[in-house]
Each structure stands twice: as C-alpha cells, then as structure tokens.
Automatic annotation (TrEMBL):
Site (Important for catalytic activity): 133
InterPro entries in UniProt: 3-OHacyl-CoA_DH, 3-OHacyl-CoA_DH_NAD-bd, 3HC_DH_C, 6-PGluconate_DH-like_C_sf, 6PGD_dom2, NAD(P)-bd_dom_sf
UniProt keyword Oxidoreductase, yes or no: yes
Organism lineage: Bacteria, Bacillati, Actinomycetota, Actinomycetes, Pseudonocardiales
Assigned protein family: Belongs to the 3-hydroxyacyl-CoA dehydrogenase family.
Protein name: 3-hydroxybutyryl-CoA dehydrogenase
All residue ranges annotated as the 3-hydroxyacyl-CoA dehydrogenase NAD binding domain in the record: 4-176
Pathway where it operates: Lipid metabolism; butanoate metabolism
Source organism superkingdom: Bacteria
Annotated ranges, domain 3-hydroxyacyl-CoA dehydrogenase C-terminal: 179-274
Ranges annotated as spanning the membrane: none
Protein keywords: Oxidoreductase
GO-annotated biological processes: fatty acid metabolic process
Length: 274
C-alpha cells in the first residue's frame, strides 16, 4: 500500500522507516530541496541502525527503493497520510488540507503530541482526520496513541488502528483532551523533575537514576527531556498550562535553558552534556 508522510524530521523520518520496513511504498514530503536531501539521509541512517541490530528482513537499499522524497506533494493514491511537521496549528492545517486534495481516499493522521485534533480538523474533511501519535524512536517504541475527536468516522478509527497494528504497534485510544494521555503524564513528570532540580532535592544524575533503577524507566525524566528537546517540552507545557491551568506552568529553569539555546541532545547541552 502507499502511505504519505509529511515532514522529514526525527519523527517523520522514523515513521517513514517504520512504513518502509512494513513493506509499504512511502512518499515523504518536505519543504525545500535541501530538506529533501536531509530527510532521505535521515531515513537511510535510521534503517542502517535497524539493520546493524538485525531488525530488518531485507537491506536498507532494497527498502529505500520504495521511498520517494518530494518537495511538493502531488496527487497520489495513498491510503494513509501522516503529518509530522512542527507543532503549529495553521501549518498543520495547511499541509493536511493539501493532502486531503492530493490523496482523496486517505486517512489524514496528525502525529501532534498535544494540539487539539478538533481544532486541526476545522475546514478539513473531519471524518477522515485522526490523531496518530508515535513515539521517539519510532521504530523502537511499541505504542501508537490514537486520538479520536467527535467528528471522526468509525471507519477512519478502524483503518488507523489496523495500520498501526499491522506495523507491529500496540494501540491505545484516547479522546481529544489536552495532552491526550501520554503527553499530559509525561510532561507532568518531566516538569516535576526540573522543579526538584531547581529546589536542590538531588542532582540531575541522581533524579534520573532514581526513576531508571527504582521504577524501571529506560532513561530518567531529565535525559528523556534532553532527547525530546527542551523547546518541544516547553511548548507542550505552555499549551497544557493554557488549557488545564497553572499546575502545568513550566519551571523557570526550563525557560532559562531554552532562552540560552540549551535545547537538549540536538544542541549538545540540556540537563546533560551530549
Ligand atoms: N531502528 C532504528 N534505530 C534504532 C533501532 C531500530 N530498530 N534500535 C535502536 N535504534 C537506535 C536508538 O534510537 C539509538 O539511537 P541514537 O544513536 O540516535 O541514540 C541507537 O540506535 C542505540 O540504540 P540502543 O538500543 O543500543 O540504545 P539504548 O538501549 O540506549 O536505547 C532508547 C535507546 C530506545 C532511546 C531507550 O533509551 C528508550 O526507550 N528510551 C525512552 C524513550 C522514550 O521514552 N521515548 C518517548 C519520548 S516522548 C515522545 O516521543 C512523544 C512526544 O510527543 C514528544
């Protein structure tokens, strides 16, 4: 089957990898010639890591034959579109509206980690729109969180679930509430860990070790914030504070670090040095 992924950053490249490894043809749309090149390399690098770990049934080169990276999405008979562009409602609406025309039969899924699916669906064929929230690193993390708004067609929910399950993921279904299930809880723990660091309760290393060895997390909440990006987590916390109240107000330390450009792993410095 054919799937379209819009946006070739960390999440988009990971989703493209997953779809290719699942035997699908993938059209990956980016927004400039430079980004087309970078996106293709990101998918190739991710597939190479999976191959090194013996996780691919074939070679990355074979799978990459099924990948087309384009600067402008044209008409394509896709059954699934997943957008993974930055967390900006207008941008996401724009790319989904374009995809709705280019792929008239496709489920229109957003990988947003916090934005309202109801808001995204406005002005679009809402019955085809759903939240399909993947987790970083996409080929590794087992979950897909389906976010269901009032206007979605049951056939869209069933189709998104089938896509995710056929790709080997476990699905949870969540109503369109701020932060869904996972971002709301994940950000709550992440913000509290930062406040504990501010209060001098323990060092960053010890807070993380506490959750890793005490609770069996694969990485502690501060290292995870570095992986996700401090700017990304700040934006989600601000959104949740606006929607759910001051208990989600981001800690000053997070704001200061983002203002200094300490964005986590991608900038080389966050709560840890990378
Ligand atoms: N395909 C592609 N890459 C793979 C892979 C595969 N099958 N298996 C592993 N890798 C990658 C890893 O991502 C890692 O990449 P980097 O070199 O870029 O770090 C590398 O290969 C090493 O992998 P290992 O398995 O050897 O490393 P590890 O045992 O340290 O595991 C981890 C790394 C999978 C990230 C693990 O620490 C983990 O699960 N951490 C928690 C991640 C998490 O909580 N993710 C959710 C974030 S929240 C989110 O995504 C939602 C949101 O809305 C923001």
């Amino acid at each position: 089957m054919i799937a379209v992924v819009i946006g070739g950053g960390t999440m988009g490249a990971g989703i493209a990898h997953l779809l290719l490894a699942g035997g699908h043809e993938v059209v990956l749309a980016e927004s400039s010639a430079d980004r087309v090149v970078t996106a293709r390399s990101a998918v190739a690098a991710s597939l190479a890591k999976a191959a090194d770990r013996g996780k691919l049934a074939t070679t990355p080169d074979e799978l990459l034959k099924n990948l087309t990276v384009v600067e402008q999405l044209a008409e394509v008979p896709a059954e699934l579109v997943v957008e993974a562009v930055p967390e900006d409602v207008d941008l996401k609406r724009r790319v989904l509206a374009n995809a709705a025309n280019a792929c008239p039969d496709a489920v229109l899924a957003s990988n947003t980690s916090s934005l309202s699916i109801t808001a995204l669906a406005q002005g679009l064929p809402g019955e085809r729109v759903i939240g399909m929230h993947f987790f970083n690193p996409v080929p590794v993390q087992q979950l897909v969180e389906l976010v269901v708004h009032d206007g979605v067609a049951p056939s869209t929910v069933a189709s998104a679930r089938k896509w995710a399950e056929d790709l080997g993921k476990t699905v949870i279904e969540v109503k369109d509430a701020p932060g869904f299930a996972t971002s709301r809880l994940g950000v709550a723990v992440g913000m509290e860990a930062i406040r504990m660091l501010e209060d001098g309760v323990a060092s960053a290393e010890d807070i993380d070790t506490g959750m890793r060895l005490g609770y069996g997390w694969p990485m502690g909440p501060l290292r995870l914030t570095d992986l996700v990006g401090l700017d990304v987590r700040l934006a989600i916390a601000e959104h949740l504070a606006a929607e759910l109240g001051p208990r989600f107000e981001p800690p000053a330390l997070l704001r200061e670090k983002v203002a200094r450009g300490e964005l986590g792993r991608k900038s080389g410095q966050g709560f840890f040095t990378w």
